[in-house]
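Exam review. A common question shows you a sequence with its structure tokens and asks you to describe the fold in words. Practice with the pair below. Do the first one on your own.
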Amino acid sequence: MHEILTLQLGHRANHLATHFWNTQESYFTYDNAQAPSPVDHDIHFRAGVGARGEETFTPRTLIYDLKGGFGGLRKWSGLYDQQQLDDEQGVEGAKGIWDGNVVLHADPQISQSDYQRSLDEGIPNPQALSTQTVRYWSDFNRVFYHPRSIVQINDYELNSTLMPFEKWENGEELFVSMDVDNDLLDRDVRGLAEECDQMQGMQIFTGGDDAWGGFASRYVEKLRDEYGKMPIWSWGIEEEQGKGQMAKQLLRTINAARTINEMARNASLYVPLSVPAIQLPPYVHLNRDSEWQISGLLSMALESMTLPSRLRPDEQRRGLLGDIEAALNVNGNQRIAQLQCTILDPETELPRTVNGYASHDDRAPSDTIHAMIKEDDVGLINSHLDMNLSTGNRRSLTYASQHDTSDHTFGAVENTRGRVQEARDQELDEDEINYARKRRRLAGLSVVERYHSSLQFPLLDSFPRIFSMRPNPAELAVHTSLSTTTDISKRVKALQKLATRMVGLDEREALSNGLGEISEAYEEGWNSGSDEDSDD
């Protein structure tokens, strides 16, 4: 069935993943009057049996968070109870040898949000969600999780000032200590993995510039030892550049450098994620202090980009994680990619402008593919992708940034979701496209792997109202791109330069050399014509 196993590491990652799971839940169809969903739900969901013997369908995921990070979410939902899980695991209730009085001391429970309460009672939400009412990621959650998916870490507390969980080495040490005590792969991962018939890979949501980066790096290292060549995609969420005190910014930057260095060795693909510090398109109104809104924007692009990996093969062209990864990693060691996206006008599927209507002169995706067949110097479609959601985009760009001709793109995978493009795709000859793609790859030119789905991105009541468009849409046509470019080398070089000055002597050389090797992977075989490093 080509299942995908998900790991969610940390509070920011769980905000992002909650939006992701809410979107997957919206694709389910429950009556014969609705058309079957093009999404294969078995890829991300697992079947089970609930407390009352009813069939359940819960996400194939593991959710790690610190003490206090789960909000009002309960480990035991209405689907399961403690006794049932004990029976499944072969655990018998045993009485302790102490026969005296027992006094139970429990932390005060965090109350459910009004939104969660309305979902449980099956009534309309009394008020729309807002930045004031969303306190935790569980406040806007729409799905049930299996109890074994919930993993609370009690060594640290969320937002603690006494023991802040912010240094990379804190996360590394935490994973090592937990793994020594429990063997996390045996306790948490193996059971979910063995339920899969033909797992296509794993996706990991994690913080990329805090302690969770260290935790995730060690986790991915152990997963790689266990699962060999299986695709392991990691999405590292980073704080917006220039936000917070200078000391905090430097700490986050060093953390990000360590995470990239480790992920480039062990993950199949690592994609840094953050809201760009530059101006966003006029149709995006984002509260940069709201994790709910930030993760909503990132999730829209991430979910749209990975949509081909969970489509039914008989519906539309499916792109498994391994297929997408192969198109990006052109030279064999390009494991870091950047994510870009734009919202399209639903009538024309061209980029939107200030007033919400398409007016760009950029070619439509199908026009670009036709041009790729006829010529060798055609530019990529990136010129009209107006949001770069991967960090390192430090240049002063307007919202409708044009493609920098000094940058070279090695490989790009693009996905368009909308209904207009489907008719255009029927005009394209797949054999011609494949021939053109091979010819360009052999010539060292940019290669575009392209997918399309008529399934648009749904704007649920749990999704923040961050888009201003007329009329207000219920779903969005979205164009997304993952690409490996020379721009990644620029960011890694900047991290290398900073690490050389800021990191301790004991790891300075190893980190600097590792980042240098990563940077060179995005320069080999390409001469941009720049005289930046010339001695003339």
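Now try the second one, then compare your answer with the model answer below.
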Amino acid sequence: MGPPDLSALQTSSTFALDRNGVLLRAFAAPDGRWRLPAKADEVDPKFFVLLKAYEDKRFASHSGVDFLALGRALWQYATHGHALSGGSTLTMQAARLLEQRSEKWVPVFRESAATNKDSPRAPHSFPAKLKQIYRAVQLEARFSKKEILEIYLALAPYGGNVEGLRAASLAWFGKEPRRLSTGEAALLVALPQAPEARRPDHFPARARAARDRVIDRARAAHVLGAEEARRAKAEPPPLRQNFPNLAAQVTDQFVKAHPERRVFHLAYDARLQQSLEDLAKRKCERLGPKLTAALIVIDNANGHVLAHVGGADYFAKARAGSLDMARALRSPGSTLKPFIYATAFSEGLAHPETLLDDSPARYGLWRPVNFDDVFHGAVTARKALQFSLNLPAAQLLNEVGPARLLARLRSAGLELKLPKDSDVGLAIGLGGVGARLIDLARAYAAFTREGVAPDLVESLDDPPRPENRRLTEPASAWQIADILRGAPPPDNGSAGRIAFKTGTSYGYRDALAIGFDRAHTIAVWVGRADNAPVPGLIGRQVAAPILFDAFARLGGANEPIAKPENVLEARNSADLPPPLRHLRHGAPKTIAATYAHPIKIFYPPEGARIDLGLSHGPDKADLSLKAQGGAPPFTWTVNGAPIDAANPRHEARWKPDGAGFARVSVIDANGASDSVSVRLE
């Protein structure tokens, strides 16, 4: 007879763990069973105390066979016609569990099979029992007591297709077996002896009776006190299986992409994931039967995705819950507006206190209107963004250039898809483009990281290579964060708590809210998976309350973004340099302007790498800036911050504080401007 077949120990379920090793979700093993590996050190010690007291008191001392217990069982069988107590050791049971998977034989004794009416009696087979004894001796010779226990922990049956202690603890109690109550541990000891006859969801009275017998035997063995035994018996048995099924839409994708893997280590936080899945489900149940929601939570410091809710209810067919709507291309509504303003700020076209014109305007055949159909006249850029006015945003985008904005967003990793057969137009700033929620969250996180978008990390097994993807300059990133922190909150929010922006797509198909503080960025989308319109589906009214609830579940102080140095601050437009006080309606602003000699930066050229000896310290560095054309005086800015007062000369000098990328802009007296990006070394 050869060595025992251990192949069953190699066929475990595929499963995903969170950042702390907590189970998110498991998939059935190839044989259709839920089987998860469990180490003895990961199990509550009281389980082993009860297991040995009930099954094998002399487990620590015997060599696989307890001849005293076996002899007693044989004598009882011979004198009474059936066994009054079991003779199998835990080692013999481990051997039987291994053997059942290779030869499908049935053992002679099963503990409690003859002594309990709730357990069907197994047919006797003395050759099978002898084989079990032989295998037990083999196991004892090859493995330590701890390893033998782990074989039992991995293969013991617990009802249905649940095998192993860890799978059973998760299925019946919804938690890992590290911390079990006495009643829970006793039930897990009792179930393997008659797993189908004692299933708590099918036969709760039998499950309770079997558990109580374990408790009584432990009490008789003096390993349980009377009060602890009383409390354990008072615990109600579980009435249904409750296997974790967190991040189901995402784990489906990981398993499909890597079918060869059995374990996935993800960056998520299981507690937060569960909390936000519950939040999404509860909110959508109130909103309507076909609505679903998606949420993304990012750790701004390292780009780790702490939660990824793809849908409101994975099993809800009406909501298409199995679809990952966080990765679906949907209209972003007004959530792209902050990037229009950030680009204008970084290129010196405007400032938060610049006055914009919120009045009727037409751009070719397109005539944008505000969401409330009201015009507000002259407003600051700050107010225009806080109240998401469409006319000022369109005006700014017309000056920035939609193609330029699109290129900047794409270079920072934001995947945007234009409608079929359409050109890049101003409508992209108001939602006329397809975007994914997870990409929007990533782009918003750049406002917390001095303008650099993080590489998102969902899998800890294959983290991405860090890339420097600058979306905007540090000064303009802070300016956007400062503006959005003043946006009026929804009814369940407090003013100034987080910086956030909402969005509503055309036809009320998508409601979005994206917010951030110094530590985290959260993005929320609500809508129908089939893209059908939903009257009243407005970002501020539907998505923003979910966003604020999500931040409340995160906890923390919601610290604001730190202000970088050299940011031009002003109380109103009068405090700004003249070219920044107004964005003149219809006035040319860029090098494509219609002046005979438009303003243009002559030095440094676009994309230049300039060695200023910064490795020897910033005191060594001094960069010459030169422009040509335009109307004096000229205002120079670097990374959105003015470096000098308005000057009639075409030249200026600037001393950087370190190596890196810089955005240099110049504005003339007419408001025309030009910008270049350079790398300083």
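Model answer, second protein: The chain has three domains: 33-234, 329-514+526-554, 587-680. Residues 103-117, 119-124, 585-596 have pLDDT under 50 and may be disordered. Full marks require stating both points clearly.
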